Structures are given as structure tokens and as C-alpha cells.
Automatic annotation (TrEMBL):
Similarity annotation: Belongs to the TRAFAC class myosin-kinesin ATPase superfamily. Myosin family. Plant myosin class XI subfamily.
GO CC terms of this entry: cytoplasm; membrane; myosin complex
PANTHER family: MYOSIN, MYOSIN HEAVY CHAIN
Lineage: Eukaryota, Viridiplantae, Streptophyta, Embryophyta, Tracheophyta
Any one GO BP annotation for this protein: actin filament organization
Region Actin-binding, residue ranges: 613-635
Name by which UniProt lists this protein: Uncharacterized protein
A GO term for molecular function: calmodulin binding
Length: 778
């Protein structure tokens, strides 16, 4: 409040560079405050742009932000920063865990002795840690019999996958069995990580080991609380990366591993230097520091074995990976049939790669060539064969590479699921969601659109959970509390996915009209949503659109939306590969049932994704959620650097600031009456005898501690953020004083005893001495 802005006190002032700057108030006049910074620079600003600084901010920060005496953005930031500098990367905001990526190994955080510390410990008893979240989820599942979920989010490179792995290790630690015959479920779940990473992770600008898919791992438990099964669901693998890599990123790890395989494998797959392959050499980045692709190849094969992928299957998988690389090297030129727009492989080299790809796929070489250069059209019952120009042929080649790769990835996921096995009798599960965070780049395409839809959905889930749970609790306890406005993002969700009329519906419509282009699609969006508050058309563009997401505005470029949304498998490609002599390859392209081939040639990626999300949310809604927000402290991916603005942005996007706002606005700390009295009875030991009931006792204790703004519910005491800390301080003080009294009494007792003893001894000595004296006299 205003009172805090007195001359001489310290404040946080908004600063474009470091977000919040510390300064001392020099003068305050007519609402204009002059602040002087350590460096000597002066700033004059309005009080609205500054926050009071906590004069007693603990030098090591606090483990739970809601315990901060001054709960505001700069305070939160300072707390995270101070802790980060001490390698305390985990901090709570109520029961949300914030994890700041250390970008260096901190082994003490993951060793077995640390795991043991969290086992059975109550939440908050130990320092903040993903193990505490997992532990709390596990005991809730056991004690309350309710399924749980842990949602890990954050931007690329923030540490989601690393945190997820820690959670899984810990759940395996809690619910695992001692070495049984064969591989245990938990071992297979853990070993699925390296396999999925080999095929679904790549180096990007933002992360050297970026997961290019979302993942939900469902761990099933039996009645005794032991892991009895698991299922992995994946979302939206980035397909475009297979054929298109921009510098300095890489394609999926498996391609480079295979090029570094032992000689006999290289010969078998006719591979060699990765720089020779178009799908890899579009980027200059081939090798990664600290990553030995040849070792990774061996390690991946070993992990594949653990998750039940036989050596024959491994051979088929790598044959397909190699075939994809060869496909990329087939170039096309104009064909000989001058009168038509035709194409053919460019030269000997292209024919070599075509032949090799066909051998590896075990399909007919000529049909493979035709599937690129020709297209069969069916019009009014007639079939016409149309030639494609070199450009279109190359696109068709890329389409084949992408569809084969994505089906291969799906096969691997399904195989892992089959091996691990589901437990049909499982009663409870803990789901762990590792999914891409909100994205907003210079150019945002269809992928960002889908990713941000996911985040809108999860944000709504988060809001509903945090807000509605709170609200329900307040209503249940019948306490007087007028809630701050509920920030619901349903309007953004409607804009995107309402049926009919939402952006996805319009996109699907555009994809079905042969004549639509991204321009006509954009035009349609502008017309439809011209009055929508969440939608706008950027002034300088004719095809971009901006969505006002919960985390800020994102402008999307529609250029490739239509293509990327079409999940259309070219029938020639499907026919070719389902005729492969290799059962593995043909298995990836099962023949479609008759009706669907005709009517729904088109299926929309966005729509499928929307349905996947729907089912994910249904699963999540049936569980009690726990949240881990990962934060990336800098974009250099280096330890020890904490960029304020960057972190702040992520806290806002992850709903952390929102959660803090809710906490501030309400009464985040609550205790049952009996627990409360028990904890604080020391403030007035006879309180229970003096009061007619527990409620009055609670009130009396609160008065003792000089607290006013609290609420008494039906079963609980509700406290403002930080009040618990005040009560604890009073308690500590009383305890301290009591200790003094006890010590005093004890010391007195000992001293007295000693004194009495000495006195008695003295008397005795005197007596004896006198006696002797007397005897001598005699
Ligand atoms: N707890 C940790 N300890 C040490 N290093 C970490 C930790 N968390 C993350 N890192 C480092 O940061 C990198 C990125 O983390 P991670 O792959 O988990 O990010 P992510 O959020 O899953 O990113 P993406 O969305 O791109 O997959 C890791 O490869 C690792 O080097």
C-alpha cells in the first residue's frame, strides 16, 4: 500500500532490461516518486509502477512462495533467483512445484538416499522436489483411493523430460518389486525413454535433446500399490522435421546413430557419411558435443531389446530409417514426354537411391518411381494417369518419407505398450504428462497453433482446478468470501475449436475444397471473426491472424496450414508399401476398410488432435492433478545464468503468477480446528479448558497472535498467505521462552542440589574438624 512508499524505504521499480530494479525512495511528491538506484541512477515514476521491497527478505529465500511476506512479481522473481544461485532449483507455490533448469548435473538431487528421504514424508516436510510431488500423489492414491496425475509443463528445454524421468524413477522406487524373473514393468517403462528419444527427439535451437512429441504415461497400480502395468500415449509428432531441417538444428537422433553404426550395418543399409544425405545436410549441424552417435546406436538397440523389440524387428526399423534417408536423395528433373508436365529421377545417383530405397522397403522399384512421378485420378468412374512435374514429384517423395516415419514411430509406441502390458484389473493410476509448453515465435505455423490449443486446454483445466477447488472449499465451509473474477479462457477455446464455426472447423472446410488457398482461408477467418475479441487481423498482413491467448497474443502465418492439416495418404504410396514383401513394412499400411477409402479421403490432423486432447482431458478430469512448472532460466542453455525477463514471461505463461494471485486473494493456508489448536495451544496452554469449544479456542489463539484477517469455516481455520508463518513465529517465541523457563528451573534445581550437598558436606567437615579438635583437647 501507499504507506510503504516512505522516503528511505526500498522498492522494486519496473525496468525494461532486468524486469525489476531495486532502489531507495528519495522523494515522494504528488504521486510521483523519485527513486535512486545503487548505481546512482535516478528514476521518477508513479507508485503504480513499483512495489514495496520486503526489508526482512530472508537471505536464502523461502521454500514456498506463498510464505513470502510480500507476495508480488518482483518478490517471486527474487526468491527464485536467490535460490537458483544456491543450486536450490525447486520451489513451491502452494502445491505447484517450480523447477528451474540447472543446466548442470546435481547428483545429490536424484540419488537413492534422497528418494528414501521423501518416502512417507508429509508434503512440505522435506525441501521442494519432484519426489515430494510423486510421493504425495502416491500416498493420496493409496490412502484416498483416487487416481492421480502429474502435469509437467514448460517451454522447450525447460527440463520437462528430465523431471518426468525423475518422477518415473521415484514411482518405480515406491511401487516397484524386488528383482523378479525377467524384466519388470517399471524397468520397461524407464527403458522406453531412450527408445522414444532416439526416434522422437532432435537437437533444436532451444534444446539439444528436444522431444518433438507430447507424452502421457499412465502407470497402473495393483491393490497393494505395486506397479502392475503401464501405457504410453503420444501426441503430434513433428513430421516435417523428417524432410526439412533448418540450420543449426538436427533431424531425429536415429538417423545420425544409424550413419555411425558398425561397418556391417552401414554396408547392409548402404549408408555412410551423414553429410551425403539431403535430409541431414540441409543443416550444418551433424555432430553434437558430448554425444557419441555410435555409442547411442548400441545403447538404443539395447533399450529396444528391453522393451521387447526383437532383433528382426530392429532390423526392419533401421531398414526403414535408412530407406527414408535414401528417399531424400532422389532428385527429379523434367521427363522426356515433352508435351506433359512430367518428371523422372535426375541421374545415376538418383536411380541408385531409388533402387536402394525400394530394396530396403522390399517393394517394386518401378512402382516406387511411379508413385512419385505419376498420380492416378478417378473422375466419373474413369481412371486417368497424370504425370507430375519435378516439384510435385519431390513433394510426393517427402510425403512418403513423412508418413512412413510417423507410422514407424506409432508402431514403436504401440509395441512398447504391448510389451509392458496393461493391467486390466488395475484400480488406480498415476498419469504423468510431459507436454510442450506455450509457444510464440517470430513465425508461428500450424504446429504452434496445435501446441497452443493444448496449452489453452490445460490452462482451463488448471484454472478450473485451482479456482473451482478453492471455490468449492469455501462454499463447503460456508465462509464469507467474495471471489476475485474467474479468468476463464472458454472464449479462446470456442474461437479455436467450436463446431461448427471455429477456426479448426473452417480450416477443415478449406482443406476439403480443392480451390481453397491459404489466402481464401485467411479471408474467411477475417470475415467470420471480425467482431471476436480474441481474434484480430494484423495490419500489415493479408494472410496472418492473431489469437489473443491466455498467455498473450500470437500471430500465426497461414501459409502451410492447409497442407499441414491434411492427413492424406497418397493411395499409390499406401498400395505400394502394403504390397511390400517385408511383413513389417506392409504391416505399417494395413488396407483400409472399403467405405472409408471412398468417402473420407481427407482426414484432418487438427481434428484428430482435438479428439486426442479431449480424451486426455477426460482422463485428467478423473484424476487429482499435481503440477510441475519447468522454467528455463536462459536461452544460452548454460548454468548459473538467470534472465529475469525470460523467467517472468514463463511464470506468466505457466499460470504461476495466476496461481499466486489466487493465493493472495484468498486464504491459502487452512487447518482443521483440532490440528490448529494442537499446534498453537502453546500460545495459551489452558485455552481448551477456558473455551466452550474448539472454534472459540481457535479464535482466542488467533487473537493472541494478533491476527485479524482470517476466516473460520465449518471444520477449518482459513488463513491469509504468510499468516501461518506469523503464528509459527509466535509459537517459536513462546517455545523459546518456555525453554528458557525450563532451563532456568532445571539449572536452579541442579544448582540447589549442588549447593545443598556442598553445605551438608561443609557442615560434616566442620563437625568432624570440631570433633577432632575436641578430641585433641582431650
Ligand atoms: N534436473 C536437471 N538436471 C540437470 N540438467 C537438466 C535438468 N533438467 C534439464 N536439464 C538439462 O536441460 C536439457 C533440456 O531438458 P529437457 O530435455 O528435459 O527439456 P524439455 O522441457 O523436455 O524440452 P523439450 O520440450 O524441447 O523436449 C537437458 O538435456 C539437460 O541437459
Amino acid at each position: 500500500g501507499q504507506l510503504s512508499f516512505v522516503v528511505g524505504s526500498h522498492v522494486w521499480i519496473e525496468d525494461p532490461e532486468v524486469a525489476w530494479l531495486d532502489g531507495e525512495i528519495q522523494e515522494s511528491r504528488n504521486g510521483e516518486i523519485t527513486v535512486i538506484h545503487e548505481s546512482g541512477s535516478k528514476v521518477v515514476s508513479k507508485s503504480a509502477n513499483m512495489y514495496p521491497k520486503d526489508p526482512e527478505f530472508p537471505p536464502n529465500g523461502v521454500e514456498d512462495m506463498t510464505r513470502l511476506a510480500y507476495l508480488h512479481e518482483p518478490g517471486v522473481l527474487q526468491n527464485l533467483q536467490v535460490r537458483y544461485a544456491m543450486n536450490e532449483i525447486y520451489t513451491y507455490t502452494g502445491n505447484i512445484l517450480i523447477a528451474v533448469n540447472p543446466f548442470k548435473r546435481l547428483p545429490h538431487l536424484s540419488e537413492t538416499s534422497t528418494m528414501a528421504k521423501y518416502k512417507g514424508a508429509a508434503f512440505g516436510e522435506q525441501s521442494p522436489h519432484p519426489f515430494a510431488i510423486a510421493s504425495s500423489a502416491y500416498s493420496k492414491m493409496i490412502n484416498e483411493g483416487k487416481s492421480q496425475s502429474i502435469l509437467v509443463s514448460g517451454e522447450s528445454g525447460a527440463g520437462k523430460t528430465e523431471s518426468t524421468k525423475m518422477l518415473m524413477h521415484y514411482l518405480a522406487f515406491l511401487g516397484g518389486r524386488k528383482a523378479t524373473e525377467g524384466r519388470s514393468v517399471e524397468q520397461q517403462v524407464l527403458e522406453s525413454n531412450p527408445v522414444l528419444e532416439a526416434f522422437g527427439n532432435a537437437k533444436t535451437v532451444r534444446n539439444n535433446n528436444s522431444s518433438r512429441f507430447g507424452k502421457f504415461v499412465e502407470i497402473q497400480f495393483d491393490q497393494k500399490g505395486r506397479i502392475s502395468g503401464a501405457a504410453i500415449r503420444t501426441y503430434l509428432l513433428e513430421r516435417s522435421r523428417v524432410c526439412q531441417v533448418s540450420d543449426p538444428e538436427r533431424n531425429y537422433h536415429c538417423f545420425y546413430m544409424l550413419c555411425a553404426a558398425p561397418k556391417e550395418d552401414i554396408d547392409k543399409y548402404k549408408l555412410g557419411n551423414p553429410r551425403k544425405f539431403h535430409y541431414l545436410n540441409q543443416s550444418n549441424c551433424i555432430e553434437l558435443d558430448g554425444l557419441d552417435d555410435s555409442k547411442e546406436y548400441i545403447a538404443t538397440k539395447r533399450a529396444m531389446e528391453v522393451v521387447g523389440i526383437s532383433s528382426d524387428e530392429q532390423d526392419a526399423i533401421f531398414r526403414i530409417v535408412a530407406a527414408v534417408l535414401h528417399l531424400g536423395n532422389i532428385e527429379f528433373v523434367k521427363g522426356r514426354e515433352e508435351e506433359l508436365d512430367s518428371s523422372q529421377p535426375k541421374d545415376e545417383k538418383s536411380y541408385f537411391h531409388l533402387k536402394t530405397a525400394a530394396e530396403l522397403f522390399m517393394c517394386d522399384e518401378k512402382s516406387l518411381e511411379d508413385s512419385f512421378c505419376k498420380r492416378v485420378m478417378v473422375t466419373r468412374g474413369d481412371t486417368i494417369t497424370k504425370s507430375l512435374d519435378p516439384n510435385a514429384a519431390a513433394l510426393s517423395r517427402d510425403a512418403l518419407a513423412k508418413i512412413v516415419y510417423s507410422r514407424l514411430f506409432d508402431w514403436i509406441v504401440e509395441k512398447i505398450n504391448n510389451t509392458i502390458g496393461q493391467d486390466p484389473d488395475s484400480i488406480h493410476l498415476i498419469g504423468v504428462l510431459d507436454i510442450y509448453g506455450f509457444e510464440s515465435f517470430k513465425t508461428n505455423s500450424f504446429e504452434q497453433f496445435c501446441i497452443n490449443l493444448t496449452n489453452e486446454k490445460l490452462q482451463q483445466h488448471f484454472n478450473q482446478h485451482v479456482f473451482k477447488m478453492e471455490q468449492e472449499e469455501y462454499t463447503k465451509e460456508e465462509i464469507d468470501w467474495s471471489y476475485i473474477e474467474f479468468v476463464d479462457n472458454q472464449d479462446v477455446l470456442d474461437l479455436i475449436e467450436k463446431k461448427p464455426g471455429g477456426i479448426i472447423a473452417l480450416l477443415d472446410e478449406a482443406c476439403m475444397f480443392p480451390r481453397s488457398t491459404h489466402e481464401t482461408f485467411a479471408e474467411k477467418l477475417y470475415q467470420t471473426f471480425k467482431d471476436n475479441k480474441r481474434f484480430s487481423k494484423p495490419k500489415l498482413s493479408r494472410t496472418d491472424f492473431t489469437v489473443n491467448h491466455y498467455a498473450g497474443d500470437v500471430t500465426y502465418q497461414t501459409d502451410f496450414f492447409l497442407d499441414k492439416n491434411k492427413d492424406y495418404v497418397v493411395p499409390e504410396h499406401a498400395a505400394l508399401l502394403s504390397a511390400s514383401k517385408c511383413p513389417f513394412v506392409s504391416g505399417l499400411f494395413p488396407p483400409l476398410p472399403e467405405e472409408t477409402t471412398k468417402s473420407t479421403k481427407f482426414s484432418s490432423i487438427a481434428n484428430q488432435f482435438k479428439q486426442q486432447l479431449q480424451s486426455l482431458l477426460e482422463t485428467l478430469n478423473a484424476t487429482e492433478p499435481h503440477y510441475i512448472r519447468c522454467v528455463k532460466p536462459n536461452n544460452l542453455l548454460k548454468p548459473g545464468i538467470f534472465e529475469n525477463n525470460n523467467v517472468l514471461q514463463q511464470l506468466r505463461c505457466g499460470g504461476v503468477m495466476e496461481a499466486i494471485r489466487i493465493s493472495c486473494a484468498g486464504y491459502p493456508t487452512r487447518k482443521n480446528f483440532d490440528e490448529f489448536v494442537q499446534r498453537f495451544t502453546i500460545l495459551e496452554p489452558k485455552v481448551l479448558k477456558a473455551c466452550p469449544n474448539e472454534v472459540t479456542a481457535c479464535k482466542r489463539l488467533l487473537e493472541r497472535a494478533n491476527l485479524k484477517d482470517y476466516q473460520i469455516g465449518k471444520t477449518k481455520v482459513f488463513l491469509r498467505a504468510g499468516q501461518m508463518a506469523e503464528l509459527d513465529a509466535c509459537r517459536a517465541e513462546v517455545l523459546g521462552r518456555s525453554a528458557c523457563v525450563i532451563q532456568k528451573k532445571a539449572r536452579m534445581f541442579i544448582a540447589r542440589k549442588h549447593y545443598v550437598l556442598v553445605q551438608l558436606s561443609a557442615i560434616e567437615i566442620q563437625r568432624v574438624a570440631r570433633g577432632l579438635h575436641y578430641v585433641n583437647h582431650l
